[in-house]
């Protein structure tokens, strides 16, 4: 037994020398985790994995994707807010997990000031869509339909406080029509009911509706954008139709725990933006109904401020508070 001690000391010495021989970057940074506040296999999860692969090559650093779903993104966001501010844990956040949660829920364990902005990545438009059998071909005709029938327009949402729920309130205000929110667990469930005559309007993303439009079962009246999407040239934008007040989108970005060193934030931000701006990632966005909207910390700060004014005022006006 005593003869093992010299061998152990030799092994320890060799291990230490081997570590010293490694390039500094190989052991100076621990693996980075991108936290996705949704389950595996979804759209954001797929985007995160492609992003992680590209950023890993740019940074020369191992990056893994961790799914922490639940509570409308609160679990994942809370985890990142508590994480060390060293650039090793980043949140793939967005309109719902961060802005809407903070604006709607006063008792959250985090706020806007719990994070440092890292990078804006992309955004997705909503639609104003009706079933073809409604016989409506435009937004003015939809308003006329509602008033003529003296009944609220039923629209599917993903629950109280979701982007689709709030957008219905925005339509009611700006078009001066009555709207009735009907919550669903999934977008397909809402579409099935609408096609079955149990709804008049849907605000799902274009990618969820294109096959239905090709089949002739729905009519996409407009995208909730400033300009037409080049990938969908036949669908007008709300702005060009004369409804700029109906512009809205949901965005995706990267956030770090508050206090992360600026030089670390910049390094991660530059890598993420470079990946999103590659043609392969842009193609992935187009194929999934998303639009590139890249920018550094300042761009994301500006988006958060826009959300405070845009969604925040709507939430305040309707006195919406969630637990």
UniProtKB/TrEMBL annotation:
Alphabetized UniProt keyword annotations: Signal
Lineage, opening ranks: Bacteria, Pseudomonadati, Pseudomonadota, Betaproteobacteria, Burkholderiales
InterPro entries xrefs: BUG, Bug_dom1
Provenance organism: Verticiella sediminum
SUPFAM superfamilies assigned to the protein according to its UniProt record, in alphabetical order: Periplasmic binding protein-like II
Similarity-based family: Belongs to the UPF0065 (bug) family.
Highest taxon, organism lineage: Bacteria
This protein's name: Tripartite tricarboxylate transporter substrate binding protein
Pfam families named among the record's database cross-references: TctC (PF03401)
Span of the signal peptide: 1-28
């Amino acid at each position: 037994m005593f003869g093992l001690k010299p061998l152990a000391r030799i092994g320890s010495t060799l291990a230490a020398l081997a570590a010293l021989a490694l390039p500094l970057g190989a052991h100076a940074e621990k693996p980075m985790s991108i936290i996705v506040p949704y389950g595996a296999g979804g759209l954001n999860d797929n985007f995160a994995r492609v992003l992680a692969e590209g950023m890993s090559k740019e940074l020369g650093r191992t990056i893994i994707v961790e799914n922490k779903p639940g509570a409308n993104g609160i679990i994942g966001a809370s985890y990142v807010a508590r994480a060390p501010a060293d650039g090793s844990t980043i949140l793939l956040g967005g309109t719902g997990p961060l802005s809407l949660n903070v604006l709607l829920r006063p008792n959250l364990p985090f706020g806007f000031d719990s994070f440092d902005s890292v990078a804006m990545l992309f955004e997705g438009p909503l639609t104003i869509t009706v079933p073809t059998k409604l016989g409506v071909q435009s937004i003015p005709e939809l308003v006329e339909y509602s008033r003529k029938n003296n009944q609220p327009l039923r629209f599917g949402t993903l629950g109280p406080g979701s982007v689709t729920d709030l957008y219905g309130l925005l339509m009611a205000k700006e078009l001066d029509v009555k709207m009735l929110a009907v919550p669903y667990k999934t977008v397909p469930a809402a579409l099935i009911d609408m096609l079955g005559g149990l709804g008049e309007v849907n605000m799902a993303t274009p990618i969820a509706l294109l096959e239905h439009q090709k089949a002739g079962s729905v009519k996409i009246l407009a995208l909730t954008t400033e300009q037409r999407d080049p990938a969908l040239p036949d669908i007008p934008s709300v702005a060009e139709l004369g409804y700029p007040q109906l512009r809205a989108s949901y965005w995706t970005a990267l956030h770090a725990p508050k206090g992360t060193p600026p030089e670390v934030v910049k390094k991660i931000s530059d890598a993420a933006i470079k990946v999103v701006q590659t043609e392969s990632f842009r193609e992935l966005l187009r194929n999934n109904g998303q639009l590139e909207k890249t920018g550094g910390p300042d761009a994301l700060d500006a988006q958060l401020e826009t959300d405070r004014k845009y969604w925040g005022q709507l939430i305040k006006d309707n006195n919406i508070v969630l637990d």
